[in-house]
Design a protein that fits this description.
By secondary structure, this protein is an all-alpha fold. Helix content is about 70%, strand content about 0%.
Length: about 210
């Protein structure tokens, strides 16, 4: 007599992932989370930078009016010194804090890339050079996860360097056109290519975080 099958027996079992495959899947989720956090910080930073630029332009307008009045009525020694702007100072501190958070995210991205490289090296050591191994998930060979991570990491590294320059310069610039260039560069992030979102989505799809 055949034993009755339990409902679970008829359910196809999901393959058990190896330690390396699980780590790569976790890394893909981490990439998603870090990129989402970066975008939120970029939006926050743009809001702060916009306030700084508006205050600088307003300040320049007031200074010009004051200079005209002073030129008519006072000597050079009697001209008032520039007034300390506490709100501008606070915005600059907030902008710097946003940059610090973005720096931490970029360092985490570099660490993810290093971890992925280590997994690739480990797999190559286990299976021997030149031997093709079955993909961890669907179609991607293991080294491709490293290639994608490195490509993304380099984009964010270059973008961070640009943002460091913007944070250092934006409050000290007196050129309105240049301030607008800084604002636009911060918002549109020229070093983060459109392909970054496609690479992330492809990685999430490959590791099973996204469904077709």
């Amino acid at each position: 007599m055949l034993a009755a099958k339990s409902p679970a027996d008829g359910t196809p079992r999901r393959p058990v992932l190896s330690v390396s495959a699980r780590k790569i899947k976790d890394n893909a989720a981490d990439w998603h989370n870090l990129m989402m956090k970066w975008e939120r910080l970029n939006d926050n930073g743009f809001t702060t930078a916009n306030k700084i630029v508006n205050m600088k332009i307003s300040e320049q307008f007031q200074d010009n009016k004051l200079e005209i009045a002073c030129d008519n009525n006072t000597t050079e020694s009697e001209k008032p010194t520039p007034k300390y702007n506490e709100e501008l100072d606070n915005c600059c501190a907030e902008f710097l804090e946003t940059l610090k958070h973005m720096t931490k995210i970029q360092l985490k991205m570099e660490k993810l890339t290093s971890t992925t490289k280590a997994i690739c090296d480990l797999e190559a050591f286990h299976h021997g050079a030149g031997n093709c191994t079955a993909p961890f998930f669907h179609t991607w060979p293991t080294p491709y996860f490293y290639e994608v991570s490195l490509k993304l990491s380099e984009m964010y590294k270059k973008e961070l360097q640009l943002k460091q320059t913007i944070v250092q310069e934006i409050a000290h610039s007196a050129d309105q056109d240049l301030m607008m260039v800084y604002l636009s560069s911060w918002l549109y992030q020229p070093y983060i290519e459109n392909s970054s979102k496609l690479l992330l989505e492809a990685m999430l799809l490959e590791t099973g975080h996204r469904q077709c």
